[in-house]
Structures are given as C-alpha cells and as structure tokens.
What does this fold into?
Amino acid sequence: MSEISEANVRAEVRAWLAAHWDPDLSLVAWRNLLADSGWGMPQWPKAWHGRGLPAGLGAVVEEEFAAVGAVGVIRGGIGRLAAATLLDHGTDRQKEKFLRRIVTGEDTWCQLFSEPGSGSDLAGATTRVDFDGQNWIVNGQKVWTTSAHHAKYGTLLARTDWDAPKHEGLSYFILDLKQPGVEVQPLRQMNGHASFNQVFFTDAKVPPEHLVGAVGNGWQVAVTTLAYERRFADGLAAPRRAARAGRIYEEERAEIATVMEPYRWYPQRAGRVDLVIERAKETGANKDPLVRQEIAKLMILARSAEWTSRRARAAQRQGRPQGPEGSLGKLAASHVARAAAHVHTLITGTAAMLTGEQSPRNGTIAEILVSVPAVSIAGGTDEIQRNIIAERVLDLPKEPRFDTGPFRNVRRN
Ligand SMILES: Cc1cc2nc3c(=O)[nH]c(=O)nc-3n(C[C@H](O)[C@H](O)[C@H](O)COP(=O)(O)OP(=O)(O)OC[C@H]3O[C@@H](n4cnc5c(N)ncnc54)[C@H](O)[C@@H]3O)c2cc1C
It folds into this structure.
C-alpha cells in the first residue's frame, strides 16, 4: 500500500476521477461510487465508505474534485453530525443501514434535542420514551428543529428513566419522522425564512435496534454530537455551484434548492465580513475616519477568530482531541457577526433596514441585521460557551447545581 502523503493522495484521487467522473450519471449513482471508493468521505474509516485519511488531507481531495468540477457528498446538514455520532457510538447494523444513504444524500436528517423548556439546559429534556415490550414509544415535543420539514430521520434525545439523576436518565435514538405519530409544524423567523419547526410526538415508535449507545447513556452520545456541531459550524453554508450543464449538476442544483434551503441565510447570519470593504468603497464610507476605525477593529477581530479556528483544525489534523478552541471559536464567531452587523449599519445608515430590489445589495444588508442574533444562540448560547470556558479552560468554580437526585423531583421550567 502506498504511503499516505499529500502527493500520493493527490495522484490517487486524480487517477480515480479520470477513470470514473461522469457528469451524465445520476447524483445517486455517482455518490454510490463515492461510497464504494471512499472518496466522498475520505476521513471516514475504510470499513465505512471512507479511506481513513487524516482530516488535513480532505482539502487535497476537495481541490481535485473542484479541478474537474466533480460533485461531492452533500456539504452541510445534520446528516453529517448523525454520521459522525454513529461512527463513534453506533452498532455495525446502524452504520450499515444509515451511513451509505447519508453519503448518497438519499436520507436527510434533523436534530431533535431542544425543547420549549430545555435548550441551554439540554439535559433537562422531558420528552418521554417508554418500552412497550416491542418498541420504544415516544411522547412529547421538540422545537427549533432545523430541517425537520423534509427530514426522514432525527437524532432524538429523550428521557427513559425519571428516577435516575438528570444526566443519567436520557437515551439517544434514531427516529423515523415519516410515521403517523409525528407532526411537524414549521416556524417563521424574523428574517422571513422558515428553517425551524416544532415537532410533536404522540405514541411515535422507535424499534429497539434504533437505540444508539446504552439505555441511560444518551447524554454521552449527545455530547459527541454537540462537539461535532461546534467543529462543523463553519461547514454548514450552502455550496454555490457554477451553472454547468449535465444531468448530475441539475440534480445537485435541485438538491441544494430543497435540502440546503434552510441554510440559505447562514452566510448573512455570520455577518458577511467579506462585503464590508466593498460596501465601504461603494458608499464612500471608507473616507470617514470613525467608520475606518470600526472597520479596522472588525477586521482584527475576524482575522484573530480565523487564526483560532485554524489552530483548532491543525490540532485536529494532529489527532489531538477537541480543545477549548471549539467554544472560543464559537464565541468569537458571535462577536465577529455582531461587530460586522454594527459596521454594516455605520456604512449603510438607515437604508440598512430596507429590503426589496432597490435596497442596498437587494436586501442582503437588512438580512444580515436580522440574522446575526442566531449565531449567539445556535449550538449553545454565548453564555453557555462562557460557562464552558470558565469551568474547563480557566478552571473557575463550577456553577452551583440545584438539579441533583432523581429527575422526577428536580425543579423544572
Ligand atoms: C439557527 C439555529 C438553529 C438551531 N437548530 C436546532 C436544531 O436543529 N435542533 C435543536 O434541537 N435545536 C436547534 N436550535 C436551538 C438551540 O440549540 C437553542 O435555541 C439553544 O440551545 C438555546 O436554548 P433556548 O432557545 O431554549 O434558550 P434558553 O436556554 O431558554 O436561554 C435563554 C437565555 O438564558 C441564558 N442562559 C440559559 N442558561 C444559562 C446559564 N446556565 N448561565 C447563563 N445564562 C444562561 C441563555 O444564554 C439565553 O440568553 C437552533 C437554534 C438556532 C438559533
């Protein structure tokens, strides 16, 4: 077997693409080839549709795909988080059943974690799951569930034991959303998009083989999912494809328009730092000394955040476990987004509030202003990140706890 080096990987993927890439294939047929060869998810283990490559060489594979215009696996979405979690905690049967169809994009997923009374306090989930002798039976409600309106499966964190302490009574399941006991209701956001849903369960069924990890071990499995969520946070933006001709590109465009629709506003929620200098030049604000100061501050903040996240990626490539950079990076992303929204307002003035064709950048600036607050909430709020940094990085005393003992007796929202 050839040595794993950048040059070897580049040569191998290039040769494979030269022999197999065909834009007239269907998207699913092509992605099945990716699943068989491992080039779709090169960092995954060889036994499970990958090539066992270090994460750092993924970029080399992506470059070679881009060079010939080859389509990869779907970039964003919760399926990637579910797959990463299953690779760590799933049974072989679960990996067999779910991983290939995540690579091919045939199944889309959502994350059924947050509830009306437990978001930050995720371990306080009260959706209940009881075993009836044949199946697990689910009753309760989840909320803020991105993509539930088109997802086939959801990763569900729910309570199986009310007498165990809070974190020990939870279990983690794979739930089929396309069944009679599941009702999905879309929610509309202030930026006009409808990415989220509330999901109600009335005697919904989960077969025993869809329990991930042991009964009562759901919190540990969920922590894995959340760690991947923070790590992948910058990879959730929808890809932009050039208008190429060919069956596969048409099918991919259709996929992006549906599956990636909930993420269409994600670039705006990050604050669009990339637009700031252009907009300052366009409006003449680059000559205003006060605005220039604010732009400089923003750029310093954005650059430092980028370096922190690069440091985290370098550590990952060297096989070191996820460190505090995950929380620091997430918190930094909120600061950058808010600072960018502030600078866009200074540059654009009151017109920043306008939408429609004649508004600045066709409403993009207004969309930034109403989308940025989401960064400070999604995947754990700023306050929660600060708690994590205080306790795990700065070694400060832990928050006082009032939630010990049987969960049944714990005071709840
Ligand atoms: C874009 C986006 C996508 C999302 N997608 C999903 C999804 O797909 N699936 C899913 O399950 N959820 C999803 N969520 C929900 C998200 O995980 C929750 O909104 C988040 O965890 C916060 O929970 P909450 O909304 O219940 O707020 P709460 O937990 O009620 O928090 C309210 C306020 O209190 C503060 N607070 C709470 N606890 C503490 C504490 N201990 N110390 C200090 N301050 C505290 C919070 O920081 C916040 O300011 C998404 C959210 C967003 C914005």
